[in-house]
Amino acid sequence: MQISPSILSSDFANLEAELRAIASADWAHVDVMDNHFVPNLTLGQPVVESLARVSPVPLDAHLMIEDPDRWAPGYAEAGAGSVTFHVEAAADPVAVARAIRAEGARAAFALKPGTLFEPYEELLDEVDMVLVMTVEPGFGGQSFMADQLPKVRAVREAVRRRGGEIWVQVDGGVSADTIGQCAEAGADVFVAGSAVYGADDVPGRIAQLRETAGR
Ligand code: DX5
Ligand code: ZN
């Protein structure tokens, strides 16, 4: 069970300090948005490269961008320990996953709420993690979509059937109130942005999420 706080909800003027604040987490979730795949714009490869140099925990890059076929391997090269691309944007998801792994990072694919998992089940052979979005990608602070839990369950079931060590990540609206349901459905990596950075005691909130998910 792992916690990956999203720095999308942190202070972008103080990213190094904001990363230090989550040193007790397992990953730092970095939301890359290009204003095309989603209607929001954040940061790109040069910033990821700088963050990777100072982060106390490995970077979990979530690419909400068009043409991951072209751009995804660059984020692994920039030093992200895990690179997640959206299947909706990829022309050749198998090639993207292989290219990420070839750069030495863990590879993952993400599913928007409206995207079914079943057509992508074979892709499990190529990745280390599957991200099930529990909000529409684009913004932090949205409400958790409980209707995505059956998808989490389906991914976990498929992973179990095939064997192997594939992680199941949830992202969007994950808080102390919703993390238990996600864990129960089979998620084992939890992204939380506003729930972590909105807390007065950030390490305390990470510990609370960990404990609640483990229950
Ligand atoms: C949304 C991003 C999330 C976001 C989560 O498009 O992918 O990672 O930061 O924020 P919260 O936890 O506030 O829903
Ligand atoms: Zn994300």
TrEMBL record:
Keywords: Carbohydrate metabolism, Cobalt, Isomerase, Manganese, Metal-binding, Zinc
Family named by the database record: Belongs to the ribulose-phosphate 3-epimerase family.
Enzyme type, top EC level: isomerase
Gene name of the record: rpe
Residues binding substrate: 6, 62, 138-141, 171-173, 193-194
NCBIfam families noted in UniProt: PRK05581.1-4 (NF004076), rpe (TIGR01163)
Database matches in Pfam families: Ribul_P_3_epim
Biological classification of the source: Bacteria, Bacillati, Actinomycetota, Actinomycetes, Micrococcales
EC assignment: 5.1.3.1
Names of the cofactor(s): Zn(2+); Mn(2+); Co(2+); a divalent metal cation
GO cellular component terms given for this protein: cytoplasm
Cofactor stoichiometry and binding remark: Binds 1 divalent metal cation per subunit.
Stated role: Catalyzes the reversible epimerization of D-ribulose 5-phosphate to D-xylulose 5-phosphate.
Pathway: Carbohydrate degradation
UniProt-recorded Gene Ontology molecular function terms: D-ribulose-phosphate 3-epimerase activity; metal ion binding
UniProt-recorded name of the protein: Ribulose-phosphate 3-epimerase
Biological-process GO terms, alphabetical: pentose catabolic process; pentose-phosphate shunt
SUPFAM superfamilies in UniProt: Ribulose-phoshate binding barrel
Catalytic activity: D-ribulose 5-phosphate = D-xylulose 5-phosphate
InterPro entries: Aldolase_TIM (IPR013785), Ribul_P_3_epim (IPR026019), Ribul_P_3_epim-like (IPR000056), RibuloseP-bd_barrel (IPR011060)
Superkingdom assignment: Bacteria
Positions of a divalent metal cation binding: 29, 31, 62, 171
Catalytic residues as annotated in Swiss-Prot or TrEMBL: 31, 171
